[in-house]
Design brief:
7-stranded mixed sheet, 4-stranded antiparallel sheet, 15 helices, 13 strands, globular
């Protein structure tokens, strides 16, 4: 199977028709299904619509600043824009255009080189290993840098988080180098379980924090950049220059407020269930004599998302996943991608509301049915 529109249409139809799934795919909802919850968002819909960031958008900004314990927060239409603006503003304030970050972080992997092409910044990498950097690697970087950007969790490495003490040490190492610290917290919302700390205490370690509304909270799109009041006000000026001063944004803001009210409190239960599912997947694959090798990474998920690796080509795994959904009404895995050596593929598993009902036997049955179709 490929990313051909017809193949994708078939996949989405199978996902939508499935009775059992660990989470809803981002491509599953219809326009009507996305619009329906907005009418029940925690906001007075009889208030005037927003215009250039006031009204419901301003209320969302206030709510995010309150949750993160920061002085202010600014709404951005995309996380890419928010990250670029944050790093650009810090470079201007520190006088140093160098950003220390992981080579598999979002700006390096998914932003089209905007860090250098648009913002005129330069990156250095504390490590190339698929893990969070170590404090000693920050301390020993051979050149000065103005900003340390930490992606929490580091998605491409398996949604990995450092231990709380390690995070404190990373921040301290950056401060010793006279650098500021920015958190790419697109998925910070679900990191409280691993850290054992509330959002405000986590965010307090950084000089600025970016959070997303659609990745974990079920929003439509959009992000917020939070930090000191003067810094956030400066980012609003750059947001305008980047084309982010959008006239109407109430659908995105309402969806984000709804996510903060409905999904945010559920995230700890998703993390707990993801750990159960990961453990049962490991046991089930180990019991399958026909599977020569597998990896659940990390073995105990740090958030409600983790990776599964299998030694088969991507097309074979995609077809088995599709047949499982069409023939049994069960979605175990959504998308597979080639990574690492030839013949090795990886998928990301996300556990949300639909997955809370899965039991150990549900997981074992799904794995057996999946492997039978390989």
């Amino acid at each position: 199977m490929t990313d051909d529109p017809q193949d994708m249409k078939r996949l989405v139809a199978a996902w939508r028709g499935a009775r059992r799934k660990l989470s809803h795919g981002l491509r599953e909802p219809t326009v009507a299904e996305l619009l329906a919850p907005l009418a029940e968002a925690p906001y007075d819909l009889d208030q005037p619509a927003d215009a250039y960031g006031d009204g419901v958008v301003a209320e969302l900004e206030r709510r995010v600043a309150e949750l993160l314990g920061t002085q202010d927060a600014a709404f951005f239409p995309t996380g890419t824009m928010a990250q670029q603006v944050a790093l650009r503003c810090w470079a201007g304030r520190t006088g140093n255009p160098v950003v220390a970050l992981h080579p598999r972080s979002h700006p390096e992997q998914w932003e089209g080189g905007a860090l250098s092409v648009v913002a005129g910044l330069r990156s250095v990498h504390p490590t190339t290993e698929a893990r969070q950097p170590l404090p000693e690697e920050i301390a020993s970087l051979p050149e000065p840098f103005g900003t340390l950007m930490l992606e929490l969790p580091l998605r491409e490495a398996g949604f990995l988080l450092p231990a709380w003490e390690e995070l404190e040490a990373l921040v301290d190492a950056a401060r010793e180098r006279e650098a500021v610290v920015h958190f790419d917290g697109a998925r910070l919302w679900e990191s409280t379980v691993h850290f054992g700390r509330p959002l405000a205490e986590i965010a307090a370690l950084a000089d600025s924090v970016y959070v997303s509304f659609y990745k974990s909270l079920g929003g439509l799109s959009g992000a917020c950049l939070a930090g000191p009041a003067d810094f956030v006000e400066e980012t609003r000026a750059w947001r305008h220059r980047y084309g982010g001063q959008v006239f109407r944004q109430f659908p995105q803001a309402l969806a984000a407020l709804a996510g903060l009210e409905r999904e945010l409190p559920k995230l700890p239960s998703y993390v707990s269930q993801a750990r159960l599912v990961a453990s049962e997947l490991s046991s089930a694959f180990a019991a399958e004599s026909g599977i020569p090798w597998f990896r659940i990474h990390p073995e105990e998920p740090h958030t409600h998302q983790f990776q599964v690796w299998l030694p088969y080509d991507t097309d074979r795994l995609r077809r088995a996943s599709l047949r499982l959904a069409e023939e049994t009404g069960t979605v175990l895995f959504h998308r597979w991608s080639p990574d690492g050596p030839p013949g090795l593929s990886v998928t990301e598993v996300t556990v949300t509301e639909p997955g809370l009902s899965w039991t150990p036997s549900t997981v074992r049955e799904a794995v057996a049915a999946f492997t039978a179709r390989l």
